[in-house]
Amino acid sequence: MKRIKLAIIVLVASVAVIFSLVSCENQLEDTNVMKASELEASVNELNTTQSDGHLQTRGGITFYTTPSIGNYTPNSSENVPIWGKCGYHNGGVLRAKVQKRISNNKFTIRISKQNGGTFGSGKAYIKAASLCGGIAASKSYNSGVRYIDLDINTNMTLIRPASKSPFIQGLYKALNSEKDKTIKKEIQKEINLYVDNINLYYNKPDPATFTYTIEFTNNKSSNNYKLYYRSNTYDDIILTDVSKLSEVENKKHAIQNGLNAAWDIKRKFQKKNKQTQLESPKMSTRFTYNRIAAKEWANSNAENKSEYPSKTVQGTDCANFVSKALHQGGIPEDKTGKWYGSSTWGGYSGDNWMRTGYYPNMGGVVKYMTSKGYFYKQNNESKVFAGSIMNWKARSHVALVTYGDTVTIKYAQHGKYNNKDNVYRDANGVYVSNINFFMPSPSIMKK
Questions:
Q1: Which alpha helices (DSSP H) does 244-389 contain, by range?
Q2: 306, 414 in Cβ contact below 8 A?
Q3: What is the C-alpha radius of gyration for the chain, rounded to an integer number of angstroms?
Q4: Which of 42, 250, 324, 411 lies 20 to 30 Å (CA to CA) from residue 93?
């Protein structure tokens, strides 16, 4: 594997911070330095606490970062100079990290002061290879913007009984209008399933975390801030203006979701020989999946240290974390199917175990679980319950659903942050979701 190393130096006010990008092609070892003409970069909006820029390289090389995505360069004393052929710059005032990978060759670089201080007006540079390497890009910036992350940790208590749930009411509405006794029996089973699920949480305090980001500007108007709801994935921070979030619950839509769930059951029995979205084909399995056991393992281990990246294996830990939870729920490892964990901490796992399934022509936990018929895609978010898989549409990231009461969905994850009890805000599908949900097939569920 040919490894091409790039030392990227970010200069602000003659203070340097160095980090590197590493590319893997084939099995040979080499240290080539990329010329500035082979690099393109643009720096967007440096602000009082941080700056974002895109680093893009030409050609088909896949780059990895050192430090890994989400980690800052090591702190250093302001009095320790960084030497190069063209002189030196003092280090220690700034630090940098690759905030996210946009594509194989494109990254967002975030710069901040180690002491938490603010930037004044100035100019930022991204240089290639060394202090005296070519300037890949430069961008003037002004002071005046500041972001503050605000996490609200609280307990939520479901005080509405299952009988008052609009989703359950929608199911009952369909039940009462159905004439076929077999279909009525199956709809009643669905009602019983979700009443039992709601009762798991009824009148019981349950931890919840709401994640917000506040953007401040220095203008003197009364509207000098914006409030965003924040989602932290493996390689990105997604900010959504709170005005664009869905309602916590829309009764009309929730009732319709209940009706839709009943209609799915009816279509199943009307088209017995055709696979529907409701359930994957029947299969013979020698195991049962205990979704509550998977949820409990995820909550107990969410804040533990990530296994990946390791000295041996690049990448992130999100799929590995979800795969471990599913395995703890009873799904057996599959060597032939490449869904198995590493035998040693940080060692190689099967491709379908440690990948998400996001990239074309590559396996992953979502692709494996759906191809085996163990999980199926669920568009009706009122139905999503603990033990389901949460899969981001536009990012390579997965999480495990740990709570679902037909209104609120919570999840645990490993990635940029290892955490749990995160509240997902698009629970009833009113807002166009950036998430796909995959639920366990009834054929593998613990009866």
A1: 251-270, 291-301, 318-328, 351-354, 365-371
A2: yes
A3: 25
A4: 42
Residues 6+ apart with CB under 8 A from 155: 205, 206, 207, 208
Closest CA to 97 of 36, 51, 146, 152: 51
- Dump pLDDT digits (tens) for 195-235: 999 999 999 999 999 998 887 766 666 677 788 888 888 66
Look up residue 179 and give its two tokens: 């004439």
- At 440 the three-state DSSP class reads strand
Q: What is the pLDDT of residue 432?
A: 47
- Using DSSP's 3-state secondary structure scheme, residue 416 falls into coil
**Residues counted in the chain:** 447
Task: Return the structure tokens found at 418.
Answer: 């290892």
**Positive or negative, the Cα torsion across 438, 441, 446, 447?**
positive
- Contact yes or no for 372/332 (Cβ under 8 A): no
Q: Which whole-number Å values give the CA distances from 336 to 268, 286, 313, in the listed order?
A: 32, 16, 21
Whole-number pLDDT of residue 111? 65
CA 11 – CA 151 distance, rounded (Å): 32
Which two three-digit tokens encode residue 34? 């990329």
User: Helix or strand or coil: residue 240?
Assistant: strand
Coil/strand/helix, residue 179:
coil
Break the chain into its structural domains and give their ranges: 3-143, 152-444
431 touches 242 (CB < 8 A): no
Helix (H, G, I), strand (E, B) or coil at 146: strand
**Which helix H or strand E contains 412, and what residues bound it?**
strand 409-413
Query: Mean pLDDT throughout 391-418?
Result: 92
Full-prediction pTM beyond 0.90?
no
Look at residue 2 and tell me whether its pLDDT is greater than 60: no
Whether 274 shows a pLDDT value over 60: the answer reads: no
> What is the rounded distance in angstroms from the CA atom of residue 395 to the CA atom of residue 106?
14
Q: Which two tokens stand for residue 136?
A: 């890949």
**Sign of the alpha-carbon torsion through 150, 151, 154, 156:** positive
Residue 76 confidence (pLDDT) above 50: no
Name 253's Cβ contacts closer than 8 Å, sequence gap at least 6: 428, 429, 430
Please state, in angstroms and rounded to a whole number, the distance separating the CA atoms of residues 339 and 358. 16
